[in-house]
């Protein structure tokens, strides 16, 4: 009798395969859940020995392995002659019924959740489009918080994926003396090239004498010659082995402290030789760790089949995986999905053919962010559309329970009165509260601040380096179609637990002046200088600290960045101009320049410039520019050219700017700003004026956020600085952005104020909103 194995994502799918292969009378031997789905062992009942065989004379005892097999195959002892064993029929029917019931219950619960939560439908569809499997998404989305808005749901899904994605803790955890590492996987996934990249890393870490290369690939023409060429370039020995005896002989020549990298022949996951390869590595006479190479460009079902076959090939357990060809893959989700479901820690990812540079060591957050990158969310033919899901969900409409409906009515009456009731007796409606929560979830600045606030409340504030890397990716992804970007740098005094110091921070804005996220944060006290990369005893000069911050934010930026800051020495400005950086600095009116070869101060030089009126929307989306909304000023700006000169240095050409706020009723000058910029900056008056205003507003926002650094807490200073900066940016946006007016109104009412939220109340209002979100989520 032949026993067949069937696998499906659900019990119903596996049973369908059984019926197609063996017919309706198939005998189910076992039914169990495994990684990624359900496994069924079944046989055709017509191949069973009939009961007469049970009455035959006793035969000699079989071997132990045969005895175990016979136990599985033998019919029930009480079976009647000439009939199929009724016990087996009954157990098979019970197993099938149980599996069908489990599947049906699971599908009903899943469908019920989708009907209750439209955001779960959206998230399910979005993640399918990114390549994740239905099996993983069902398991994950069952735990999604209810009433989550679109952006909050996506952020929750990202955090869940980051938390469950296994990755190698550090490269040092892999490269231990005496490591024997074999790459396995199907043909064409890039094993030989990846071995060469790993070899280069090993040689760079410990020298050529620390490494030995081995290949078992004698099938492909030129395969071992390719590895030998790499070995000659790295000056390391390369051995070709064909069987376990040659493998053992090679192992005896390798020192215990040397690293051994083994390139194996590619084997289809359906090839029987996969078990022989596993036996070859297991019998090498030395512990060989195996890494499975997963081709990111493969379909998810193919990756699942590969992982299942190699995980069950009878060899030593897989240590993890390497994801190859991510530069060729339209979606990265399937590879990450496979790593999660089969618990295969990702060691490296390969993003090209170049040796050794196209091999990356990435964190879980980096991998998930790449998988969820908007650029990959292209139209796909292999994920259900919104219309498809809507049609499926509309097939059934569950009845609402009376108790749940009564509880909702009670909440809708009492909660708004409790939170937003005024002395006049009026209150905002429940729909307004929910709309405010949903709107803040859609705003990237407020939602990122909420994530940090919640992490800190749970005692799990992320390290500054990790938080800034994530926020910087958010900022890059939020740039508008113009591609223009501003980074505002601000320096202010700091009071940290009774000690005084300086706080230097940065924040990203798009070309229209919308805040995106905070960036690098640094802080200095008398006992040292603290950065996301670590602390050091001596603090850099103010110019060096600012220049380092500018270089960090410029590197890797998707577009040219205009850096806006205060002051700056000639040395700094010359260095930035020489490096091709775009810079704008707010200056004192007494700043010394040269105009037409004559020395003068900046305030005198701008008197000769031609001022032009700015459009009334120049500072949109600011409700209040420089606190002058009551005066409704007219704005005028001018630009010109000048030079900076220093002894022993060539003249540095610069642009000079002046911005004026004028009372339109009597022409009275309300405020004046002066600035200089490098010649690489275009003389766009509106953009320059907006940048100067954002510099001032950013300073004000972080001054109000400074108390968050001084309150009780055990987090490191720079970790807290990132939290305080993002909270300050969010509070400022809440008070200033007209699109968030409904949210600001709810915050103001919860503070017992009028419908307008004052800037000085924005931090308190923001915390009230976050508490409201938590309350409604329950």
Description:
This protein is of the alpha/beta class and 778 residues long. It folds into three domains: 4-109, no CATH class; 171-362, Rossmann fold, CATH 3.40.50; 457-727, Transposase Inhibitor Protein From Tn5, Chain A, domain 1 (Alpha-Beta Complex), CATH 3.90.350. Helix content is 42%, strand content 20%. The chain has 26 helices and 24 strands. The chain has an eleven-stranded mixed β-sheet with strand order 16-15-14-13-12-17-18-24-23-22-21, sandwiched between helices. It has an eight-stranded mixed β-sheet with strand order 6-5-7-4-8-9-10-11, with helices on both faces. The protein has a three-stranded antiparallel β-sheet with strand order 1-3-2. Helix 3 packs across helix 4 (118-129), helix 11 (300-311) packs parallel to helix 12 and helix 17 packs across helix 24. The longest helix is centred in the first third of the chain and has 31 residues, at 86-116. The radius of gyration is 34 Å and the shape is globular. The model is unreliable at 49-84 (pLDDT under 50). Residues 178-373 form the SRP54-type proteins GTP-binding domain. Residues 50-88 are annotated as: Disordered.
């Amino acid at each position: 009798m032949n026993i067949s194995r069937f696998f499906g994502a659900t019990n119903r799918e596996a049973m369908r395969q059984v019926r197609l292969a063996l017919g309706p009378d198939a005998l189910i031997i076992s039914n169990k859940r495994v990684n990624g789905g359900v496994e069924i062992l079944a046989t055709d009942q017509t191949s069973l020995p009939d009961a007469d065989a049970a009455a035959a004379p006793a035969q000699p005892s079989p071997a132990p392995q045969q005895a175990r097999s016979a136990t599985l195959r033998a019919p029930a002892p009480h079976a009647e002659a000439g009939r199929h064993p009724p016990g087996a029929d009954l157990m098979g029917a019970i197993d099938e019924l149980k599996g069908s019931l489990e599947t049906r219950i699971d599908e009903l619960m899943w469908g019920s959740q989708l009907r209750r939560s439209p955001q779960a439908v959206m998230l399910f569809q979005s993640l399918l489009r990114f390549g994740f499997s239905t099996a993983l998404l069902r398991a994950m989305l069952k735990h999604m918080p209810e009433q989550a808005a679109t952006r909050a749901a996506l952020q929750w899904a990202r955090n869940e994926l980051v938390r469950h994605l296994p990755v190698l803790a550090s490269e040092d955890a892999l490269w231990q003396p005496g490591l024997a590492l074999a790459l396995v996987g199907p043909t064409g996934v890039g094993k030989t090239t990846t071995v060469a990249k790993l070899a280069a890393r090993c040689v760079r870490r410990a020298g050529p004498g620390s490494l030995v290369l081995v290949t078992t690939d004698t099938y492909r023409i030129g395969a071992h010659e390719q590895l030998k060429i790499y070995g000659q370039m790295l000056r390391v020995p390369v051995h070709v082995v064909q069987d376990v005896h040659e493998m053992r002989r090679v192992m005896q020549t390798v020192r215990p402290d040397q690293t051994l990298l083994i390139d194996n022949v590619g084997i289809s996951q359906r090839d029987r030789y996969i078990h022989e390869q596993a036996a070859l590595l297991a019998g090498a006479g030395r512990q060989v760790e195996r890494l499975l190479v997963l081709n990111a460009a493969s379909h998810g079902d193919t990756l699942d089949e590969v992982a299942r076959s190699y995980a069950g090939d009878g060899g030593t357990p897989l240590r993890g995986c390497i994801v190859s060809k991510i530069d060729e893959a339209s979606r990265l989700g399937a590879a990450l999905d496979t790593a999660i479901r089969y618990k295969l820690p990702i060691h490296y990812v390969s993003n090209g053919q170049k040796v050794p540079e196209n091999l990356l060591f990435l964190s879980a957050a980096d991998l998930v962010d790449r998988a969820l990158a908007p650029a990959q969310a292209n139209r796909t033919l292999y994920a259900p559309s919104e219309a498809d899901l809507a049609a499926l969900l509309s097939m059934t409409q569950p009845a609402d329970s009376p108790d749940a409906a009564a509880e909702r009515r009670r909440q809708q009456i009492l909660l708004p009165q409790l939170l937003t009731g005024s002395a006049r007796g009026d209150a905002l409606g429940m729909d307004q509260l929910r709309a405010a929560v949903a709107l803040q979830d859609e705003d990237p600045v407020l939602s990122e601040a909420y994530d940090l606030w919640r992490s800190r409340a749970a005692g799990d504030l992320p390290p500054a380096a990790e938080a800034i890397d994530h926020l910087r990716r958010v900022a890059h992804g939020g740039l508008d179609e113009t591609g223009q970007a501003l980074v505002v740098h601000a320096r202010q005094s700091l009071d940290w637990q009774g000690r005084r110091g300086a706080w230097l921070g940065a924040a990203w804005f798009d070309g229209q002046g919308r805040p995106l996220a905070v960036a690098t944060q640094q802080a200095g006290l008398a006992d040292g200088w603290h950065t996301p990369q670590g602390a050091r005893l001596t603090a850099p000069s103010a110019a060096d600290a600012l220049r380092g911050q500018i270089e960090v934010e410029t590197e890797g930026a998707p577009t040219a960045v205009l850096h806006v800051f205060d002051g700056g020495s000639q040395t700094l400005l010359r260095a930035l101009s020489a490096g091709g950086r775009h810079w704008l600095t707010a200056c004192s009116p007494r700043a010394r320049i040269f105009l037409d070869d004559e020395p003068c101060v900046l305030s005198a030089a701008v008197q000769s410039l031609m001022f032009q009126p700015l459009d009334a929307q120049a500072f949109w989306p600011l409700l209040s520019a420089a606190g002058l909304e009551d005066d409704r000023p007219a704005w005028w700006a001018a630009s010109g050219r000048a030079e900076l000169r220093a002894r022993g240095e060539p003249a540095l050409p610069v642009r000079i700017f002046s911005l004026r706020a004028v009372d339109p009723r009597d022409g009275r000058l309300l405020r004046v700003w002066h600035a200089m910029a490098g010649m690489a900056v275009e003389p766009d008056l509106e953009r320059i004026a907006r940048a100067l205003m954002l510099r001032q507003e950013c300073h004000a926002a972080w001054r109000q956020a400074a108390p968050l650094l001084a309150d009780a807490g055990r987090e490191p200073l720079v970790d807290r600085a990132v939290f305080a900066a993002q909270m300050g940016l969010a509070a400022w946006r809440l008070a200033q952005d007209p699109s968030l007016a409904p949210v600001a109104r709810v915050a103001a009412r919860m503070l017992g104020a009028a419908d307008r939220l004052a800037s000085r109340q924005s931090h308190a209002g923001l915390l009230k909103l976050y508490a409201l979100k938590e309350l409604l989520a329950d």
